[in-house]
Structures are given as C-alpha cells and as structure tokens.
Amino acid sequence: MKYIRYSRYVGEPADDVDLSELMRRLADFFLYSGFPSPYYGIYELDPERSLEALRQAVLRAIESGELLPEELTEELLQNPDLHQNQALRELIDRLIERMVEEGYLNAPLPQVTPPPEQTPGRQLGAAGPEQTQVRFEITDKALDFLGFQTLKDLLGSLGRSSFGRHDTRDLATGIESGGATKPYEFGDTLNLDISATLFSAVRRQGARVPIELDYPDLAVHQCEYQSSCATVLLLDCSHSMILYGEDRFTPAKKVALALAHLLRTQYPGDTLALVLFHDSAEEVPLSQLARVQVGPYYTNTREGLRLARRLLLRQKKDMRQIIMITDGKPSALTLEDNRIYKNAFGLDPLVVSETLREVAICRRAGILINTFMLASDYSLVHFVQKVTEICRGKAYFATPHNLGHYLLLDYLNRKTRHIH
Known about the structure:
alpha/beta; Rossmann fold; two-stranded antiparallel ribbon; 16% strand; disordered C terminus
C-alpha cells in the first residue's frame, strides 16, 4: 500500500532575511561613485560592478548583524572567506538570487559551486575567468526603492512635515473649496455655490417659483491656489568630490533620488531635471543617476548654469529654481569657440567674472539659485556669498551627512516663498 509521509518544512536561512533591510544597507554600495586613482594607489571604485564585489558587500551587511539570527551569524562568520566557507557563499548567492527575482537587479543568477563529490574527478570547482567578469545593474525599481528609503530617513530627521503641493496666499476657483464664495467670472472653474446662487436670485426677484437665474446670480467656490515649480538639480562631478578621503558625490546622488521620489509622489505638477557639470555640462536622465561617476574633471560652473537656465526657460511654471551642489571653486570656462579654458588653482578672474555674469542672467530670468556647499574654504565662501547676493538665493554650507536634511527642509519650507 502506497502512502505519503509528510515532514516538517525547514526553510532556507536566506528566505528569512528582510530584503528591504538588505537593500537599505547596500545603498551606499549601489550608489558609490569614484574612479581608479593611479596617483594615490587607491582603487576607489570598481567601475564595472562585478558579482564578486556584490558578494563582498552582502557579506559586510551580514557582518553588521541583525539580518540573521545571532547564533547562525556567529556560526557562518567563523570563517568569512567565501572561497572556503561553502555554506556562507551559498547563503549570499541565494540572497543575490532573491534580489534578481524581486526585480532589484539585472544579473545572471549566481552559479553555486557543487561539492567535491559531485564534480568530475572529485575536485572542488573554482570560479573561472568567465565567472569573475559577470556584471550586474540595478533596476529602476531599485532606484525608486532607494529614493523612497532616503526620503523616509530624511523626513524622519526633520520631524513632523506637512506634505502637499506648494501653497500660496492667492485664491483660485477649483474643486476643493477652501475660501469664500465669489461672483462667477469668465474663465473660472464652474464649481457653483448653489446656496449663494439661489439666494442671489431670490433676493433680486423675490420668493417665487420658478426661480429664474441670471448671469450675475452665479457664484462659485474658491480654493487655495497652488503653484508648480520647475527645478534643475545641478551636481558637481569634478575630481574634488571624492578627494581628501571623503566621498561627497554619493550623498548628493542619494539626495537627488529622494527629491525625485518626493516630487513624483507629492508634487506631481513639479518637474525635476538633473544636470552634471564638470569640464562641460550635460543633462542626465534620473534613471541613469546610479551609474554616474565622477572623474578627473575641472569645475565648469558657468556651463552648468547655462544649461540649467535653458532647461528651465522651457518650463511654463510659476517658480523656477536651480539647486546647485558643489564643493569646488570654478576652475573651467567654455570659450566662444567651444574651447575649454582651465585653471587648476580655481578663482581665476576670467572664470569667476563670467560665472557671476551667468548668475545675473539667471536672476533677470526669474530663476532662483540655492547653493549647497560641501566645503568651507575661505575663498570659496566669498565666491558663494557673491552668488547669493546677485541671485538673492540662499547658501548652505553642509557636510555629506547633513546635506539631505538641509536640501529637503529648504524645499518643503518654500511653500509660501519666492512666489510673489
């Protein structure tokens, strides 16, 4: 007689790991930006993300604790060498496989090396050259998740914040009533105040039926007028953003992702464009932000402002602003014949004067410039003061740790400013 024997299912340890928490811990790894520096002997970045580098990042996340039960973590980390600890390697490969299945990564599923008794000649298989060259890319879903997590962390540091569109002091006619009733005028949204309309007709002709309505009797609800804003995020990706033992570009990228998520979910009428400036300037889609790297570039601030101004003038918005994140003095300038003039020492009189002239042009075009400085050099402070004086914007001298706090607080506090 045939029978079926049921046994208790014991899941894999990797299935118990909170994938959201793992992605949050890998955020710096996914967004880190730099380049191999032959001058300092430091390999600051693996420019082509390899699967082996991802394994090491997941290993560091496990070592930080709380992803797995404490007893299991201690057991697995007795030998943290992935080439010798087969159980730990299989666990990490399963976690990477889950990230691929959930749509966070685009990568070939990692191949688990079989034990010696299952390999030809009973020899432990080793990763060949073709396996070490396997690369991965993070997906749009991962970028959206990282932006959401960063935004949540930043809002948590701000305390209680009121979301919503940019409120102004003006009133308009619309669906959501929030103000007093007004007589209808041509062009108003026909959101009739029925009571006021009928009362006007009765007061004009007396209480009789049928009530005859005339054009002056029409009254409409008023609601708070809400404006829209066009923003260009101007990111410095020159060499100085990763110099002096500090990565300043990765926090800037995380803030850009958080700002993009905020605009898409809470301010759907707003627009956000991303411009990188270095030897020149270029617009980059937000979907490509995680793949952007710094390089051995100079700082062409004027060219970045010029491109940002052209992008903003295309937008028919009530407010236009440039958010510039930089840590370096202007050190490059695009000449009339498209040649690039460079001065590595910075604050060249020609470069500074042309940059300030572009700031004045932005001011005349009604474009606000808010500058977030990641350095506090005296000469740089003086230059930023001149920029804010010309454009009547604001300057924040931030660090990579509080950049997101300052930038997001500035954006949310701008609900009633710079409109009238």
